[in-house]
Design goal:
With 297 residues, the chain is mainly α. The protein is 80% helix and 3% strand. It is elongated and about 95 Å long. The mean pLDDT is 91.
């Protein structure tokens, strides 16, 4: 590898590294092990390979589905505006976004869902972001080698942050799924000990787990659709959407960082909110127990 190639690779990697450092600093309550974060980033990078295979397969299927709606003229294949619109929807939301976010979600889930370090509000976000940045880093190196420095620099402000934003969306709902599971376990103990009679968190985690994949797929698909759809209006929408993602996701990161607490504390707060009067009854019972012990003494 020559000097120019090394420089190109470094430039392509810098955005992902910078964003990784930023999100690491925002992890306020309890820093995650560096080894775990590196594992997530490497796993994210490796998901580029099954994603590329899956995308090629999906592209072929999409082309086969829409080929009857195309027609050739002067050696060029054309589609009606409706067919072209639907083709691009399937191409971007299913062939690209679902495949890429799906493999990233799988890597995130397999590595972290039972990890002992997954124990605070911000953890799901930092885990998902590191997986996404690993994917974005390797993808950006590939684009840099194929299309040059200008493409790598442009993607430093578009595609690489875009992957991170998908990670923020995924990580938020992934964390909420984790917290709902904590609440479910705590409720079972409360029921067994007679404090409550009916659970409130029995099925709620399923929605959050589904959203942790669905929401980033929709965001990623819309981003890619606006990029690839041949329309000046789509280009305007793309930059507006990207600006909105910058504002929303960096705001979400700052908010979750400030609110970061251990999952046991958050689960307890959620339980007390879902069961009005439970906190007061537990406090009163503990106070009565202390008074009894004091009188016996």
């Amino acid at each position: 590898m020559g000097t120019n190639s090394i420089i190109l690779a470094v430039v392509a990697l810098i955005p992902a590294i910078a964003l990784g450092i930023y999100i690491f600093v925002k992890d306020r309550v309890e820093k995650e092990p560096i080894g775990l974060l590196l594992l997530l980033a490497v796993a994210g990078a490796l998901t580029c390979f099954p994603a590329a295979w899956g995308e090629r397969l999906m592209y072929s299927l999409n082309d086969a589905i829409f080929s009857p709606f195309g027609y050739e003229k002067d050696g060029i294949t054309y589609m009606s505006s409706t067919a072209y619109f639907l083709y691009q929807v399937v191409q971007n939301f299913l062939c690209v976004a679902l495949v890429e976010e799906g493999v990233k979600f799988l890597a995130l889930y397999l590595i972290t869902h039972k990890n002992k370090n997954f124990n605070s509000l911000f953890d799901g976000v930092i885990y998902a972001v590191f997986v996404s940045l690993g994917f974005a880093a390797l993808e950006n190196v590939k684009y840099a080698f194929n299309y040059g420095m200008d493409t790598a620099l442009l993607r430093a402000f578009t595609a690489v942050p875009g992957h991170m934003f998908d990670g923020v969306l995924m990580g938020y709902f992934y964390t909420m799924w984790h917290l709902n599971n904590k609440c479910k376990t705590t409720e079972k103990n409360l029921i067994d000990n007679g404090w409550i009679s009916r659970p409130k968190f029995n099925d709620s985690g399923k929605r959050e787990l589904a959203f942790s994949l669905i929401v980033p797929v929709l965001a990623h698909g819309f981003y890619d659709f606006c990029c690839s759809y041949d329309s000046s209006f789509a280009t305007i929408i793309f930059f507006a959407f990207l600006a909105g993602l910058y504002i929303y996701c960096f705001g979400k990161i700052n908010k979750l960082s400030k609110l970061d607490r251990l999952d046991n504390d958050l689960a307890a707060a959620m339980i007390y909110k879902a069961h009005p009067g439970l906190f007061e009854r537990i406090v009163a019972a503990k106070q009565a127990q202390q008074n009894t012990q004091y009188n016996n003494y």
